[in-house]
Amino acid sequence: MHAPDGFINAPVSAAAGVVAAGAIAVSLRGARRELDERTAPLAGLVAAFIFAVQMLNFPVAAGTSGHLLGGALAAILVGPYTGVLCVSVVLLMQAVLFADGGLTALGVNITTMAITTTIVAYALFRGLVTLLPRTRRSVTAASFVAALVSVPASAIVFTLLYAVGGTTDVSLGKVATAMVGVHVLIGIGEAVITALTVGAVVAVRPDLVHGARGLRHKLKLRVNGELVDAPDAPAAEPVPAAARSRRTVWISGLVTSLVLAGFVSFYASANPDGLEKVATDHGIDKKAEEHALADSPLADYGVEDVDDTRLSGGLAGVIGVGATVVAGSGVFWAVRRRRTGEEAETADPTRTSV
Amino acid sequence: MGAGHAHKLYRHGHSPVHALPPHTKLAAVFAFVVVVVSTPREAMWAFAVYAGLLAAVAYTARVPAAFLLKRLLIEVPFVAFAVLLPFVAEGERVDVLGLSLSVSGLWGGWNVLAKGTLGVAASVLLASTTELRELLLGLQRLKLPPLLVQIASFMVRYGDVITDEMRRMRIARESRGFEARGVRHWGVLAKSAGALFIRSYERGERVHLAMVSRGYAGSMPVIDEVTASRAQWSYALALPSAALVVCLLGWTL
Fold first, then answer.
1. Interchain pair B162, A49: CB under 8 A
2. Which one of A20, A100, A112, B34 has the largest count of C-beta atoms within 10 Å of its C-beta?
3. Which residues of chain A have a CB within 8 Å of the CB of B150?
4. pLDDT one-digit tens code per residue, A117-148
5. Domain locations in chain B as residue ranges
6. Ranges of chain B whose pLDDT falls below 70
7. According to CATH, what is the number of the domain A10-346?
8. Taking the domains of chain A in order of start, what are their residue ranges?
């Protein structure tokens, strides 16, 4: 999905660049809260991890394989702000070093692939984790859903950008069905891999999973055969936690509503027809996201694997954009209502979350 | 490790282009791409002139054409997309060699193809004449937030380490007879990815402690300040200014 130069016109690219710059500025401040002065090395290493894990090939069936995109995974493992930073840095380096994605399209690419996936995934994940029982299994389930929705969501944002500033004359309906249909498929793979990976990390180091911090149980001590709560550690800071979650909701809410309000009108004029081409050009799009497994991340970038001409069947158009948008915003509102309830609860000063 | 750590796209040389300060090159490439993208697609000759300009730069940088063309292959998916456009776009159609093609689709395909190729070529030239570390210094000089540059430099610096770690894990899996054949094996691969994350994160913590013990307090010391003289700036900006002239001509003609 790395858009090249000239795919989206200059004004819209510039606008997306401004959005991306703003989001990165917010994330830089947020990441300092998430990681304090450890931000640079930790975010850098996580970015390197995202970069490396994108080369881990997951075989699907004879000959074909997919790989992780990583936005949802980053958001769940290290938090939304650091996640945005990591994926943006990966995209920036890919654009500057490997000419993968145009320089002027960098704003578009960051907006769709870093910001949208991370925010959508994290908002959904947090919402589900608070709704579901506090177990490891629900963390895995929540990350499945979060990753599943985040990929088509990013496809929708790309379609919206295309609707405003696309330089080609393909009808919006075709682009939308192609993008969303194929990315639902990609999203399923992404969801399975993300859920399995998060599950693996939670099993070993649950403290490292940022999204599951609230799930830790209190330390219990067995004193004279009786379980008692260990005395609280010096009070952790519950205030920034609350501020952070409220802020995430606000930012994602703002972005979602802006996008919905500003661009929905374009759908009115779209005349969806003919799905025949959709599959072909997305066979290509999919291919663009699959690199050969390289020994070094820098080695195989020059030559993309070109031989994979898989047509991703007649699945395009299975899911209409409208349905996804409605479902997405529905889920978002549910999450948000739940969140406000939770905030009122955490405002209670006697309760410390460790 | 950081210093002589050239990336695979870099092509060592001593040409005038190699010698330019990195931030002037970055600014020049970015300005060039912006100019290219804002050129009207009907001005076909303009794109030929742009390609000529890039060829001149490649000649000055002594980057062989074969090298450049091979790197351009990264664009192939979008070329295929551009070729498809005339078949699917709407609008009036023309018959070319018995095929019914959309006029606007032809223009759209040409637009994506020309601008995308020029953009990729410019980026490839930048990457092949600028070392990784210089690029990061250049980004810093261009007022990218220092924290972002630090993150990028850590990513670049440890990218190879983490990938090597992944490779060792793959060899460990394979030496135990594991071979990923289908979806059933995703669990094992995902566990590797999880382990890789834990290792990366813990390495990050160790790196941070090592930095703190050497006096790190949130910002990196700048030891090699790069500056550009007026002559170097004007030399680097010759490319986008020439392109701008072409672009303006393209709009007026």
1. yes
2. A112
3. 40, 44
4. 999 999 999 888 888 887 788 888 999 999 99
5. 16-138+227-252, 154-213
6. 1-9, 89-93, 95-100, 224
7. 1.10.1760.20
8. 10-346
